[in-house]
Amino acid sequence: QVQLVESGGGLVQPGGSLRLSCAASGSIFRIYAMGWYRQAPGKQRALVARITNDGTTNYADSVKGHFTISRDNAKNTVYLQMNSLKPEDTAVYSCNGLIATPGGVMSNYWGQGTQVTVSS
Fold first, then answer.
1. Residue 103 pLDDT more than 90?
2. pLDDT digits (tens, 9 = 90+) for 14-73
3. CA torsion angle for 53, 97, 70, 76 (degrees, to 10)?
4. 72 phi and psi, to 5 degrees?
């Protein structure tokens, strides 16, 4: 089994910053990609940012220039640095990992989600 555990959410004022972390653990053979998705009330879950095992990144247009995704391969951890936060960034942020287990089975795994609220 593989687990993804997120941390770092919370309440922040507009213009502020937060850093989310997501650590993968368990029966991991290889992590192909990790990413962050978010779901605001009344909206569908959408990709925020994603990073592959070779470091290739892609971002939603709405966060380009003020969010940065990075990863620490030694720790199986992905980070999302969020700067210049806006009220429309308020959502539940969930970590996703495309991970293969030692048996060779590659699956999508999800964390439990962490609330980010941007409000004055």
1. no
2. 999 999 999 999 999 999 999 999 999 999 999 999 999 999 999 999 999 999 999 999
3. -80
4. -115, 100
Closest CA to 118 of 18, 35, 6, 42: 18
What own/partner pairs with CB < 8 Å and gap ≥ 24 does 40-43 have? 40/88, 40/90, 40/91, 40/92, 43/91
* Residue 72 tokens, joined: 């620490």
Count the Cβ atoms, other than its own, within 10 Å of residue 67: 20
Residue 73 has which token pair? 């391969």
Taken in order 21, 23, 40, 55, the sign of the CA dihedral is positive
CA distance 100 to 69: 21
- How far apart, in Å, are the Cα atoms of 81 and each of 8, 68, 85? 10, 5, 10
